[in-house]
User: What shape does this take?
Amino acid sequence: MNYIKKIPLPFAAVILACAALGNLLSSYTVMAKNIFGAIASIMFILLTLKMVVCWKSVKEEMNNPVIASVIPTYSMAMMILSGYLKPYSASAGAGLWWLGVIIHVVLIVVYTKNFICGFKINKIFPSTFIVYVGIAAASITAPAFGFEKIGQAIFWFALATLIVLVFVIGYRVLVVKGIQEPAMPTTVIFAAPAALTLAAYLNSFTEKNISMLYFLAVLVGILYVVGLCFLVKGLTLRFYPSYAAFTFPMVISAIAIKGTNGTLMNAGKGISWLQYVVKAQEFIAAVIVIYVLVRFIMFIFAKDAIKVTTQKVKSS
Assistant: This one.
């Protein structure tokens, strides 16, 4: 039980990344999907148990803007894992999907009330993308349960918040600066929102607008390079639970570009070199997820683990 209590809340992002990585690698072998799906499911159960057993401390950590903006990866993981559950029980999968959506909406409301109302720019971090754009994870699995229209509506919400937040968070990171070291890994999240939105578009819309596809794909490419630059810098830091931020952005970027490549090829507009980009992204995603997963396991089971699960944010 002590080990369960030591699981940091940001671990939810690693769970999400493992579930998404299973889907990414499923085109090569179903075994990879099953393995990462099983890992994600087990970790999800353990983190859920930690939330139940340590609810008071979890509630306190939610007062931290970094943790409050990262924890929606938990509901995002539910949305992705619902697709794994469908082959065994469509109704159970749909139920998990709805639960994930509802929890995410609640987290959006709570975060908005606590950190957007009475806005202070120093309380905003790249992980804020997760709160608002993150709900687009629902659009990826929505068609599997016949919820295309809901998935499409969520896509438009995610796209609108993405456009706004790119400028707000860009200003926060590049102009205001002052992000303390424990939260620095969250800068890699820049690579995630556009890719998640693109993946949502590819999955929820049968008819694709080629201009929208190119716009999102180019934006994904730009932000992926930005995310990679932050990743290289972040890997030089000592381990923090915020390392979890390294994982999902790499996976969802690979999923988005891989989906774009397939869509363009089916439309007879394939780009020959794009397949090599996809291979490179898949490799980077797999290596980073496995590396961070191992680091988390080492952290959780370390006897002298230091509690560095949150960043102390100074009020201004």
